[in-house]
Amino acid sequence: MPLVPGLRSPYLKVGRLVFFGRMLDKIRLHAAGRLPPADYAANLGKGFDGRTCGFLRVNYDELKTRTLAGGTDEEILAWCHAKGGPRADDECEVWNQFMTKCGWRDGVAETLARRIKQSALEAAPIMTMFDYLDFDEGRDPVSSRAWEQ
């Protein structure tokens, strides 16, 4: 996948949650016509987007509408908590650990291996889907220790 200006690393948090900001970026970039359709558009609202909406107990299409109405990431996350109910710190910690480790010795590992090969990234120290997304988009999460940020 190409580097998409304005699309942040999945490791970066909004509030207490990883990936949420990236999902908002994809919504905004798609609406602006700046999200490559072949690599991203087919999966909007699915995959990690769908899992994140499920965790927050919000409908993706409603989140999309709310995001495009404007506001900061934090305001949109607050809307999610108001709509779907707040999440405890422990729930967010478990969620973050789950998301950041997807692809490491789990049911996503086969997909991860296929994507690494398709992207010719076999030499990169990729262990998870988040690592893959970052390396594939030109970031190095291992050198920056992205999971600690």
Secondary-structure topology with pairs:
Elements: E1 13-14, E2 17-18, H1 20-31, H2 47-56, H3 60-68, H4 73-84, H5 89-101, H6 109-118, H7 129-136, H8 141-144
Antiparallel strand pairs: 1-2
Description:
It is a single chain. The chain is mainly alpha-helical and 149 residues long. The longest helix has 13 residues, at 89-101. Helix content is 52%, strand content 3%. It has helices at residues 20-31, 47-56, 60-68, 73-84, 89-101, 109-118, 129-136, 141-144; strands at 13-14, 17-18. The two termini are 23 Å apart. Strands 1-2 form a two-stranded antiparallel sheet. It has one domain (13-148).
Q: What global shape is seen?
A: globular
* Rg over C-alpha atoms, rounded to the nearest angstrom: 15 Å
Quaternary structure type? single chain
The beta-strand count equals: 2
Number of helices: 8
Distance from first to last alpha carbon:
23 Å
Poorly predicted sequence stretches spanning 5 or more consecutive residues: none
- Total separate domains: 1
Give the percentage of residues in beta strands: under 5%
Order of helices and strands: EEHHHHHHHH
Mean pLDDT: 93
Tell me the strand order in the biggest sheet.
1-2
Percentage of residues in helical conformation = 40-55%
Describe the largest sheet. 2 strands, antiparallel
Helix-strand category? mainly alpha
